[in-house]
């Protein structure tokens, strides 16, 4: 399961309306979002192809990792805010005669407002279709995930050092999608899981100059978790930090929140502040990430059997 992205610029309004729980955006809000899509690679929607590739690569990894078990894995796709919706994916499984399934989200950290929402919808549809469905809730501390992300952080730090920075001059910002502040009062594990992942990567990469920051907060009236990355950059500029490396650990794919919010918006703010900003490469369908997903799915399936 994954967030989903519009099929085309014409599809942005329906997509945005779904995110807003059926409330259509104003013309101004729609234009603002459409402009953001147009700014990333000319209105192409990389998340769609990315997700397709991830689904195909996971299916191959699951079948390669089954160690002779008499079972064939088939992966179905279900998106949160556009076609094929989560319910469409579960229905397609039922039509194909699938009776047992494991659901996994292309996001490593659990929040009742993110992964919890995917699971609830899939579970409801699976119950209606009489499919025995189990779920992976999070995999934010999987050693292979920590390892692959640490290596990506180290690669960019080395690039800064080659360009003349010293290790002490580089500040690593781990980031993730903000959520409304009320999740904290609900005892949601999201923030703690993100801090755990950040610390594990920093320890493995031998980094002490790091901090966590939020990004991509929604445009609603209620307070969202902060500080936002744009404010963090302004603060770092006051501390005379010149080299910033962003590691958006809450995301696994190249999509709007990475390609626009970081590569365009945050990069422009950093440049105005005379700072250099790089980000680590997204995992997309990296075989190491696919092996993490395959491992957590196999583990969950064994618990169900
Ligand atoms: O590339 C793309 O087309 C999709 C990029 C995209 C990803 C993504 C991931 C997450 N979101 C999460 C939470 C919220 C909450 C709201 C919200 C709103 C938006 C809007 C767009 C959008 N999100 Fe998103 N999100 C992506 C895109 N998101 C566009 C609407 C305009 C805007 O506010 O910018 C607020 C609405 C609500 O109350 O429901 C909350 C979380 C994730 C990471 C986990 C996941 O992937 O599911 C959490 C990718």
Automatic annotation (TrEMBL):
UniProt entry tagged with the keyword Metal-binding: yes
Catalyzed reactions: Fe-coproporphyrin III + 2 H(+) = coproporphyrin III + Fe(2+)
Cell location: Cytoplasm
Annotated Fe-coproporphyrin III binding sites: 3, 20, 36-37, 118
Molecular function via GO: lyase activity
Keywords of this entry: Cytoplasm, Heme biosynthesis, Iron, Lyase, Metal-binding, Porphyrin biosynthesis
EC class (word): lyase
Record: residues binding Fe(2+): 177, 257
Keyword Cytoplasm: yes
Recorded metabolic or biological pathway in which this protein acts: Porphyrin-containing compound metabolism; protoheme biosynthesis
Record-linked Gene3D superfamilies: 3.40.50.1400
EC number: 4.99.1.9
SUPFAM superfamilies in alphabetical order: Chelatase
PROSITE patterns (UniProt xref): FERROCHELATASE
Signal sequence, start to end: none
Family matches, as InterPro entries: Ferrochelatase, Ferrochelatase_AS, Ferrochelatase_C
Domain of life: Bacteria
Role according to the record: Involved in coproporphyrin-dependent heme b biosynthesis. Catalyzes the insertion of ferrous iron into coproporphyrin III to form Fe-coproporphyrin III.
NCBIfam families (UniProt xref): hemH
Sequence similarity: Belongs to the ferrochelatase family.
Record-given protein name: Coproporphyrin III ferrochelatase
